[in-house]
From TrEMBL:
Protein name: Malate dehydrogenase
Lineage, highest ranks first: Eukaryota, Metazoa, Ecdysozoa, Arthropoda, Hexapoda
Listed InterPro entries: L-lactate/malate_DH, Lactate/malate_DH_C, Lactate/malate_DH_N, Lactate_DH/Glyco_Ohase_4_C, Malate_DH_AS, Malate_DH_NAD-dep_euk, Malate_DH_type2, NAD(P)-bd_dom_sf
Encoding gene (name): Mdh1
Taxonomic superkingdom: Eukaryota
Residues involved in NAD(+) binding: D42, N105, V129, G130, N131
Catalytic activity line of the entry: (S)-malate + NAD(+) = oxaloacetate + NADH + H(+)
Record-level Gene Ontology MF annotations: L-malate dehydrogenase (NAD+) activity
Amino acid sequence: MAEPIRVVVTGAAGQIAYSLLYMVARGEVFGKEQPIILHLLDIPPMVGVLEGVVMELADCALPLLVEVVPTTDPAVGFKDVSAAFLVGAMPRKEGMERKDLLSANVKIFRTQGQALDKFAKKDVKVLVVGNPANTNALVCSSYAPSIPRENFSAMTRLDQNRATSQIAAKLGVPISAVNNIIIWGNHSSTQYPDAGQGKVTVNGSSKSVVEAVNDTAYLQGAFVETVQKRGAAVIAARKMSSAMSAAKAACDHMHDWWNGTAPGKFASMGVFSDGSYGSPKDVIFSFPVEIKNKQWKIVEGLTLSDFAKTKLSVTGKELQEEKDEALSVLDSNVSNL
């Protein structure tokens, strides 16, 4: 058996974590041969619930789960971790704008960035799930200067999974037959779900999704809107935000980052922008990436339609605004100290 690795999940008493912890501890992310020490970090009011989660993890009798460390102290939570799922954030309620979330979350992710910087392994892989995920990841990274910034990412895999599922249903094919659907930009309603590079296997032969669907109005209209607004639709139906699907997407994201993508297959990840495809530099922007040896690389040279370029410009602008707003909140916090 390999040496155990330490993995932290924040917001560990919450809804997403309730699904996520089981998947991680079962070996679905880091492999069936990789023992795990789980660090469960949450805020003091959640300690009672956290104790219940610890009991349930014990009762699952999971062979790979070596130890569980429940804590409210970031110094303990982030100590020597190799992977971090930053799920805990100020939750979004029905009718609430993402921008209302920014200022509360900036403070949370500053604290976590500082703790990662001091206590985590320097090659830690950090996935931010808590919204607004792209900007939270940016803030977190800026407070962890000793950790390479390419080790911070935001989750847009849920959007990719939603989009892939929509296309598979539209074409009446299994999920596994559809690949390379891309999410560009922000994990918000400005994101651009792009089927333009997608491939689908129909009756044993591979063709482009655009050709198979053969309905531009759908791909530029209902498809994009359904994916963009899916989170709100789930909240309206469940009266709670996506949890099971978010946990599954977090596992998919970290699994691919850890183990690599299959040749010719893309994953969508929110990563620091180098300005590719006309995106603003130095924001966390979702791109198609290929991953080898735990290093992601933006897929270059894809041809974008004018429609796609317009959509990328809108989501890029929002990310730049969020970044500026987050920085101004940080500045005012600093001057209030």
